From TrEMBL:
Protein name as catalogued: methylmalonate-semialdehyde dehydrogenase (CoA acylating)
Enzyme Commission (EC) number: 1.2.1.27
Superkingdom of origin: Eukaryota
Domain Aldehyde dehydrogenase: 36-500
Entry-linked InterPro entries: Ald_DH/histidinol_DH, Ald_DH_C, Ald_DH_CS_CYS, Ald_DH_N, Aldehyde_DH_dom, MeMal-semiAld_DH
GO molecular function terms attached to this record: methylmalonate-semialdehyde dehydrogenase (acylating, NAD) activity
PANTHER family: MALONATE-SEMIALDEHYDE DEHYDROGENASE, METHYLMALONATE-SEMIALDEHYDE DEHYDROGENASE [ACYLATING], MITOCHONDRIAL
Record-stated family: Belongs to the aldehyde dehydrogenase family.
Gene3D superfamilies in UniProt: Aldehyde Dehydrogenase, Chain A, domain 1 (3.40.605.10), Aldehyde Dehydrogenase, Chain A, domain 2 (3.40.309.10)
CDD domains reported for this sequence: ALDH_F6_MMSDH
GO BP field: L-valine catabolic process; thymine catabolic process
Length: 522
């Protein structure tokens, strides 16, 4: 009902953006038991197009009764879904990856409409999520258990990985497709049922992903979507049925979810904020490194948890700042739906205010702005949440713009004399999501790799987000929990061990005698 006739007659991806082709629900329904159902909400969040401020849809704050109904449906469906053979569950993922692939342009256009990012970037958002769905098609070797025969005489021990029950996901705004797809495909292929709370800023993409689940005839109630803000998060954390929570977002929300989820006896994984440093050694391939820096700092207008937001210029590379600035100046700002755009508007107006606050603080605290985008107004989209690309030079670690995540099109530049100083700077930073080094020296790269306290390291590449045969291994204050997202860890997160110790005695074997001492294997 929501978007099934949405994209008729489309010719090109950018044509999908034409507002006449989007028939968004005025008020977004929840997705419960395979049906799109309107909420009886009295409170709503507005979703506006980031370039035009056009009201796209209103998102309900799901009521307590509706939330409870979604959980009850998921718990009921768990009984049969958890008993569905793994190969059958994987087959749904095979069908799903095909659906996503075929509808990639539509999903990308939808992402651009509500998140604002460029269509090319939105396509990347879908592809990185799709890779996780593809990986979920083949988890059988990861989900296998362990066995020891004859662990004692006549006794065997074997462990199965079994699902947890009803699991939940809470998603951020910056990857409307990829991050929900980090969550429910693994959870359900492992045999769990799922409650998803998309970001209230970009809920339409998740809604469409649910339409595609219906199109592959996934049993009703295996995945459910409840919309809302903090109240829904609180309900998820405190619910007695939900067994695990996957969260991606900022540290304030992540800390709350980690603490409250754990307090309410749930398994929790939280991927949180970041400050990613790129270290530039004088011997690196200069042009390649500057291109990588500019792409990774300003792509998605800096709204990526793996954006390379801080350049650490070592030694004589301090002289490269004017060239970096010239390269940044070439970036074209515009509506993400239009071709040739490099930097789109920020997703929502309050984020723009926060970015401007941090840029102002940089000036007030003594940094310099060789490129200042604070007053940029797009002539065609004067209402858009644009901030012009900004380079903040001479940043010092105590400055607010360094301490806080900017999440906008701004690059901090710090100068140091040696690689050791660069490593010390990065290791002192609270975050550990990602970092990168640019050098032609294998030994310098190896020294960096061995001494840096960051979970994901790029060597001569800027955004080292691992593919799902690995896991997303942010660390320090960028991650809370034990088991990371996707890959082997993703499967482990959504399963638990059940261990059986069995003794089958032969008729002639002696039985146990009564013994009150602790059993010891013989
Ligand atoms: P956010 O924390 O504002 O929102 C994320 C989710 O939490 C939303 O669903 C929202 O409804 C909910 N929420 C918001 N405030 C809350 C609160 N106080 N208590 C409980 N729940 C709350 O994050 P965002 O602005 O949507 O996303 C940007 C942040 O996410 C950045 O910090 C970015 O670095 C981080 N992020 C991290 C990763 C990663 O893998 N490490 C990936 C993407 C984004």
């Amino acid at each position: 009902m929501f978007m099934s006739h949405l994209y008729r007659n489309q010719k090109a991806v950018s044509a999908l953006y034409n507002k006449n082709m989007f028939h968004f629900s005025k008020v977004l329904p929840n997705f419960i038991n395979g049906e799109f159902v309107q909420s009886k909400a009295t409170q709503f969040f507005e979703v506006r197009n980031p370039a035009t401020q056009e009201l796209i849809t209103k998102v309900p704050q799901t009521t307590e009764a509706e939330f409870n109904e979604a959980v009850a449906v998921a718990a009921e469906q768990y009984k049969s879904w958890s008993q569905t053979p793994l190969l059958e569950r994987q087959r749904y993922m095979f069908a799903y990856q095909d659906k996503i692939r075929k509808n990639m342009d539509k999903i990308a256009a939808l992402i651009t409409a509500e998140n604002g990012k460029t269509l090319a970037d939105a396509k990347g958002d879908v592809i990185r999520g799709l890779e996780v769905v593809e990986h979920a098609c083949g988890i059988s070797h990861i989900i296998q258990g362990e066995t020891i025969e004859n662990v004692a005489r006549g006794v065997d021990t074997y462990s199965y990985r079994v699902p947890l029950g009803v699991c939940a996901g809470i998603a951020p705004f910056n990857f409307p497709a990829m991050i929900p797809l980090w969550m429910f495909p693994y959870a359900i292929t492992c045999g769990n049922t799922f409650i998803l709370k998309p970001s209230e800023r970009v809920p339409n993409t998740s809604q469409y992903l649910m339409e595609l689940l219906n199109e592959i005839n996934l049993p009703k109630g295996v995945v459910n979507v409840v919309h809302g803000g903090f109240d829904t998060v609180k309900q998820i954390c405190e619910d007695k049925t939900i067994r695990a929570i996957s969260f991606v977002g900022g540290n304030k929300a992540g800390d709350y979810i980690y603490e409250s989820g754990a307090k309410h006896h749930k398994r929790v994984q939280v991927n949180m904020g970041a400050k990613n440093h790129g270290v530039f050694l004088p011997d690196c391939d200069k042009e390649d490194a500057i291109n990588a820096l500019v792409s990774a700092a300003f792509g998605a207008a800096g709204q990526r948890c793996m954006a390379l937001t801080t350049a650490v210029m070592v030694g004589e590379t301090k002289n490269w700042v004017p060239e970096i600035v010239e390269k940044v100046k070439e970036l074209k700002l515009g509506n993400g739906a239009e071709s040739g755009v490099d930097v789109a508007p920020l997703c929502y107006a309050d984020l723009k205010k926060n970015v401007l606050r941090l840029l102002d603080s940089a000036v007030a605290e003594g940094a310099t702005l060789p490129l200042d985008g604070r007053s940029f107004v797009h002539p065609k989209y004067p209402q858009g949440n644009f901030v012009g690309p900004t380079v903040i030079d001479n940043v010092k670690p105590h400055m607010t713009c360094y301490q806080e995540e900017i999440f906008g099109p701004a690059l901090c530049v710090v100068h140091v004399d040696t690689l050791e100083e660069a490593i010390e700077l990065i290791n002192k930073n609270q975050y550990g999501n990602g970092t990168a080094i640019f050098t032609k020296s294998g030994s310098a790269a190896r020294y960096f790799q061995n001494n840096i306290e960051c979970g994901q390291i790029g060597i001569n590449l800027p955004i080292p987000v691992p593919l799902p045969m690995f896991s997303f291994t942010g660390s320090k204050r960028s991650f809370g929990g034990d088991l990371n997202f996707y890959g082997k860890n993703g499967v482990k997160f959504f399963t638990q061990f059940k261990t059986i110790t069995a003794r089958w005695k032969k008729d002639q074997d002696a039985g146990y005698k009564v013994s009150t001492s602790f059993p010891v294997m013989k």
